[in-house]
Amino acid sequence: MSATALAKRTTTTTLSTRKGGDPIVCLTAYSAPIAKLLDPHVDVLLVGDSLGMVLYGFDSTLPVTLDMMIAHGAAVVRGSTHACVIVDLPFASYQESPQQAFRNAARVLAETGCAAVKLEGGVEMAETVAYLVARGVPVMGHVGLTPQSVNTLGGFRARGRNAEESESILADAKAITAAGAFALVVEGVMEPLAEAITAAVTVPTISIGASVACDGQVLVTDDLLGLFADFTPKFVRRYAELGPMVTHAAATYAEDVRHRRFPGPEHVFRVKRKTPPSEMAP
């Protein structure tokens, strides 16, 4: 990537200075065409492991592989010029040890050209975050409802419903911040807890189902556009309903093909008729 292209992008350093300032706008992207459409309007394009559910049809993020994340991350970088591109580290690619995390994070940075990685976890991941940051890998943290831990959390439920759980998540946020994360995603927690985390940490917090009091917001783009209909989380606002439009377009196309209305004369290539010599002007 050229120095000119890099200079245009929002950086992790810039994002870290947005604490308490203009809200950070973040959406997910998994492909170059979508990245190109979103890029002028957002500060961050997150290549989330949510792609496992919205693109691949898995029922959780757990089957997503590092190679998947690299392929989609590289596509999003190619399709954007402005936003800071951050790529999720998928399940089992970083939990084993800080050394494993560094090897895989280094691959992600080198093979995609992204600016940073995101990983889930709290106190137990602080050592790993510090290890990565010390070796030049910018890290975005993720606390609260952590989808990669769905089996131990007992499903996709809001967290921080009692004092003990709230205190634990707040401790997670503080530990990841102290370890050197430049920003923190706070997902699916009760609003007072999101407000408390935002007040307690020195880095920007980015909410997904948390609170408007956070320093930014992120949504899964397929949810925002109405393209993913398997379920709709409470915190999602649909800004468009493209799913029914896609269905209608496909049905109309099918009808036109079956009734031979498509392709029409304007859609096919024809050999131009040469003018016979007898019709040429004298």
UniProtKB/TrEMBL annotation:
Main localization of the protein described in the UniProt heading: cytoplasm
Pathway(s) it belongs to: Cofactor biosynthesis; (R)-pantothenate biosynthesis; (R)-pantoate from 3-methyl-2-oxobutanoate: step 1/2
Keyword Metal-binding: yes
Keyword ATP-binding: no
Residues binding Mg(2+): D49, D88, E120
Cofactor(s) the record lists: Mg(2+)
InterPro entries cross-referenced by the UniProt entry: Pantoate_hydroxy_MeTrfase, Pyrv/PenolPyrv_kinase-like_dom, Pyrv_kinase-like_dom_sf
Key words of the record: Cytoplasm, Magnesium, Metal-binding, Methyltransferase, Pantothenate biosynthesis, Transferase
Coiled-coil portions: none
Subcellular localization: Cytoplasm
Any one Gene Ontology BP term: methylation
Enzyme class, first EC level, given as a word: transferase
Active site: E187
GO cellular component terms, semicolon-separated: cytoplasm
GO molecular function, one term: 3-methyl-2-oxobutanoate hydroxymethyltransferase activity
Highest taxon, organism lineage: Bacteria
Cofactor note: Binds 1 Mg(2+) ion per subunit.
Gene3D superfamilies: Phosphoenolpyruvate-binding domains
E.C. numbers: 2.1.2.11
Catalytic reactions on record: (6R)-5,10-methylene-5,6,7,8-tetrahydrofolate + 3-methyl-2-oxobutanoate + H2O = 2-dehydropantoate + (6S)-5,6,7,8-tetrahydrofolate
Sites where the protein binds 3-methyl-2-oxobutanoate: D49, S50, D88, K118
Assembly and interaction partners: Homodecamer; pentamer of dimers.
UniProt family annotation: Belongs to the PanB family.
Function: Catalyzes the reversible reaction in which hydroxymethyl group from 5,10-methylenetetrahydrofolate is transferred onto alpha-ketoisovalerate to form ketopantoate.
Protein name as it appears in the record: 3-methyl-2-oxobutanoate hydroxymethyltransferase
Species this protein is from: Azospirillum oryzae
